[in-house]
Amino acid sequence: MKLKKAIVIGSGIGGIATALRLKSMNYDVTVFENNNFPGGKLTSFNLGPYRFDAGPSLLTMPHFIDELFVLFDENPRDYFNYKKKEISCKYFWDDGVMLNAYSEKSKFINEINKTLGVNKSIVSAYLLKAKRKYDLTKSMFLEQSLHKLKTYFSKDLLIGLFNVFSFQINKTLNQVNESELKEPHLVQLFNRFATYNGSSPYKTPGMMTLVQHLEQEYGTYVSDKGMNNITKSLYDLAIRHGVKFKFESYVSKILVNNKKAVGVMVGEKSYNSEIVVSNMDIVPTYRNLLKNHYQPEKTLNQERSSSALIFYWGIKKEFKNLDLHNIFFSKDYKKEFQSIFEDNTISTDPTVYVNITSKDVKGDAPNNHENWFVMINSPNDSGQDWDSMINDVKSNVLKKINKLLNINLEDFIEYEKIYTPRTIQANTQSYMGSLYGSSSNNLMSAFLRHPNFSKDILNLYFCGGSVHPGGGIPLCLLSAKIVSQLIKNK
């Protein structure tokens, strides 16, 4: 029997996951990728003897990755292994306060009590409320299409609506944290979770406290071969089961006939299929591949998420007091986000995130050396002169790190590579270099994200971080799952 054909545009993590799910449904799947490698943002590179993960550095909810191996009756432990971190992140403040965010909930609560003097019952109640939000909304917001009518005729939705006031959607994340936690260090720590979807804690709804629950409930993990092994293991899985990948193949057009997607154009050649799934950012998908079709302007013109300025540093020194994930907070968090979302620039006192995979991944740096992935939240690319900004930002970053670690770090940097939002856009087709598609700085952001299917063109679907349910590895994997369910039930 001849298999139905499916085409996936882009081999980001959402695209590979979608290809795998469609293959498990007995489709003949071809993935077209503009780059000469798979992975989108989830790739790696080397600088001399140092290896760096180029993009996402946080691994949570790895069971979504394991699911894809199970689809093909394979044991994920044969190809992809990880361990849970005892310390999710180490936090540093300019006033000398340092806090270990332990994965184990009681240890985390005890650490907050010991270091910041916050009553344990306050933190426990906060985390319990965050869990309740997640449990009430995960079915509708994360596991199904928000844009199908049947989603709204479910028991889960009715329960959610009955409890809608507990979601704190009428307050910002910062307002919730200030009213419930009060202690300034802890408020700033929990405000930080707005950055997980590229938003501001002073704008995103209080509903977003559920992100804290996800990290605390499921923990953070480290892949034994680095984040890029997620891409490699899933790509190899796809190859083993017959998914075809065509690299250096830029799709210039989605072919539509009688309001039905029927294939794609690559150069001068057309490829026909019964299903087309775009893993490209939703904006260039419409602007470039669907030029002559209806453009959902309200969706495409939403405020974009934040981006990042990233320094990759090979450091000829080892820091025993740092871990895999480290945060050096700014003094004025509100001013930092105002700089990003209102002034389109980077604060002179930015929060600095330092990821050091050599702490856990043997061979990522020489002995007694470390590979530093140093990320600063930034505005997306709206025409700034990034080249002129780099030196100032680097100087401010070093000033903060040097003060908190009592070091002259510049003396130990022997390799350097820099990514700006413009680099991110060029490498991954992410519109304006935004990391998470649109921001969640709006009460209706979840509903304004583009659905995982086209309402105007049959057999056209969308996955990845710029569409429902959102950005980040777990949500990209969930977008693939939603697409496969839509296709299965069509």
Task: Compose a concise summary of this entry.
The protein has helices at residues 13-24, 63-70, 105-116, 120-141, 155-162, 173-180, 184-191, 210-218, 228-240, 282-289, 297-300, 333-341, 386-405, 421-428, 445-448, 473-489; strands at 5-9, 28-32, 44-47, 50-53, 82-84, 87-92, 98-102, 221-223, 244-246, 251-257, 260-266, 269-272, 275-278, 307-315, 325-328, 352-355, 370-378, 413-419, 460-462. It is an alpha/beta fold and 490 residues long.
Describe this structure in words.
It is a single chain. The chain is α/β, with parallel strands linked by helices. The chain has 16 helices and 19 strands. The chain has helices at residues 13-24, 63-70, 105-116, 120-141, 155-162, 173-180, 184-191, 210-218, 228-240, 282-289, 297-300, 333-341, 386-405, 421-428, 445-448, 473-489, and strands spanning 5-9, 28-32, 44-47, 50-53, 82-84, 87-92, 98-102, 221-223, 244-246, 251-257, 260-266, 269-272, 275-278, 307-315, 325-328, 352-355, 370-378, 413-419, 460-462. Helix 1 (13-24) links the parallel strand 1 and strand 2 (28-32). Helix 4 (120-141) runs antiparallel to helix 5 and helix 6 (173-180) packs antiparallel against helix 7. The chain is globular, with a radius of gyration of 22 Å. The two termini are 21 Å apart. 51% of the residues are buried.
